[in-house]
C-alpha cells in the first residue's frame, strides 16, 4: 500500500520490539536469574536479590541479536561489529592471513593496508557479521592474553580469531575477532568453505572485545575515529574509493 511504513523485514507498521536473544546467551541468562532468586526467595535478602535480578536482565540484553538492514551495493564493505571506531592505521596484515596454508588460496598480499578497529563495550551487540559476501577461505584461532581490547597491542597478544572471506571477483577481506578484559571465548558460526552473504552472522565474542578489519590495498575508510558503527549496516569503505586517511587512536 502506498505510504505504508514497513519494518526491515518488509512487514507493515514498523515499531520497536525487544530483539531476539541469541541461543548462546539464553543459558547464561537463565543461570543468572536462578542465582538471583536464591537471595530473594530463599535468604530473603532483597537488598542483594533485586540488583542481581537486574543484572540477570543485563545478561539477556548482552546476547541480543537484532535484525539489520544490510546495504546491497556490491562495492560496500560493512562493519562486522557494533561499537566505536577506536583505531585507524596502516599496518601489515597478520601473518595468519598472509601465509599460504595449503588450502589453495594464497591469503592476503604482503604490504601495508588500512586497519579499522571497532571496540565493543559490554553494552554493544556482540554478534559479528560478514563485511562482504563470498567464501570463507580461512579461520584461524590463536590463544592469548586478555588485556584491554582497546590497546593497539591487543591485536598481537590477546586471544583472537582471524577470518578471511573472498568475493567472487577475487577481492578478499580479512578481519580479526579479539577477546578483551572480560571476554573469554570467541565462538565462530562459520567454517572454511562456507558461503556467506554480506551482513550474515559469522560469530560471537562474549562480554566486551574488539574487531579489526583489514581493508584491501588502495581502499581507504569512510568512517572516522570515534564514530559508532552498526554491524551489517555501517559502510566502512567502498572498494576502489579513495579518501584521506585519518590515523591514530580515539581519545
TrEMBL record:
Marked site (Cleavage (non-hydrolytic)) residue numbers: 208-209
The keyword Lipid biosynthesis is annotated on this UniProt entry: yes
Top-rank EC class of the record's enzyme: lyase
Keywords: Cell membrane, Decarboxylase, Lipid biosynthesis, Lipid metabolism, Lyase, Membrane, Phospholipid biosynthesis, Phospholipid metabolism, Pyruvate, Zymogen
Annotated GO biological process: phosphatidylethanolamine biosynthetic process
EC number: 4.1.1.65
Catalytic activity: a 1,2-diacyl-sn-glycero-3-phospho-L-serine + H(+) = a 1,2-diacyl-sn-glycero-3-phosphoethanolamine + CO2
GO cellular component, one term: plasma membrane
Reported cofactor(s): pyruvate
Pfam families tied to this protein: PS_Dcarbxylase (PF02666)
PTM note: Is synthesized initially as an inactive proenzyme. Formation of the active enzyme involves a self-maturation process in which the active site pyruvoyl group is generated from an internal serine residue via an autocatalytic post-translational modification. Two non-identical subunits are generated from the proenzyme in this reaction, and the pyruvate is formed at the N-terminus of the alpha chain, which is derived from the carboxyl end of the proenzyme.
Tagged with keyword Cell membrane: yes
Subcellular location: Cell membrane
An example Gene Ontology molecular-function term: phosphatidylserine decarboxylase activity
Family: Belongs to the phosphatidylserine decarboxylase family. PSD-A subfamily.
Subunit composition and interactions: Heterodimer of a large membrane-associated beta subunit and a small pyruvoyl-containing alpha subunit.
Role summary: Catalyzes the formation of phosphatidylethanolamine (PtdEtn) from phosphatidylserine (PtdSer).
Cross-referenced NCBIfam families: PRK05305.1-2, PRK05305.1-3, PRK05305.2-5
UniProt-listed HAMAP family: PS_decarb_PSD_A
Name of the protein in question: Phosphatidylserine decarboxylase proenzyme
